[in-house]
Amino acid sequence: MILIADGGSTKADWVAIDLSGNEVFRTRTHGINPEILDEEMILERLVNNFHLDKESENITQIYFYGAGCGTEKAKLFLKDVFSKMFINAKIEVQEDMLAAVFAASGGNESIVCILGTGSNSCYWDGHKMFQSTVSLGYMLMDEASANYFGKQLILDYYYKRMPEEIAKAFNQNFNLDPDVIKRNLYKEESPNSYLGEFAKIMFDFKEHSYINQLLMVGFKEFYECRVIPYQKGNTVPVYFIGSIAYYFEAELKQVAQELNLLFGGVVQRPIDELIAYHRRLLNQ
């Protein structure tokens, strides 16, 4: 049995197929990011999933494409953790950007971006992936991601820059006690996912000028930091993966056009396209 996973910081989608390419099961766990979670936390998320625990010894191959897997150290760490549960499996760990490429570009030359809980980008020349810079994670980078917008919203609420009607809804939807916020940021696991939860308020007020301005500034910063440095102008399409890109596609496209970039489109989650890719490999 082959297990294929698209692992974000907030959630991870898992699909098992047999050697004929038939789907055996699909399931979802909380996010698995080796930059955020330790071995015990990751194993707990795996073991607590019925399908993964039940079939662990029947899995012979694992292809995991995940957030936080951009370095060899992170890949080796995750391989070691997975091997403790999937004892019969050959394990391959790749960064989530590669999954985004398979899902969005169809293998053609493109710039492929992730805008979900975190953010990232790469240039795909049709054969290899190149990145303009190494990601330093949610604290320093992740422009225009859910956790980026979550930070902006919390700051605007506390600095009283948020419009009154949105501030009222923000206060009703989230626990904004400063001790609660600080505990989640500095003592609890997955602070990036915690911050990303606050971005949900933008869906309810997406037509409001305040939210629109927040999006425009964030998207422009992302393009300037993560797309324009590839120096492909408007000759190579720019594709996106992730929830922020999916729900705010119109705004994302508008900023691309203002910057004279070729907007290619959005895929919300790449797992189905990943399955199709691995089925093709089985048939080769």
Number of strands: 10
Q: How much of the sequence is in beta strands?
A: 15-25%
Residue stretches low in confidence (pLDDT < 50, at least 5 long) are none
| Beginning-to-end CA distance, first to last residue | 17 Å
**What percent of the residues sit in helical stretches (DSSP H or I)?**
40-55%
Question: Superfamily at the CATH H level of the domain at 2-99 and 271-283?
Answer: ATPase, nucleotide binding domain
Q: In terms of structural class, how would the helical and strand content be classed?
A: alpha/beta
Q: How would the global form be characterised? A: globular
- How many individual helices? 13
What does the average pLDDT come to?
A: 93
Radius of gyration: 19 Å
CATH classification, class level of the domain at 2-99 and 271-283: Alpha Beta
Name of the CATH architecture of the domain at 2-99 and 271-283 = 2-Layer Sandwich
Order of strands, main sheet, comes to 3-2-1-4-5
List the secondary-structure elements in sequence, H or E: EEEHHEHEHEEEHHHHHHEHHEH
Q: What does the main sheet amount to?
A: 5 strands, mixed
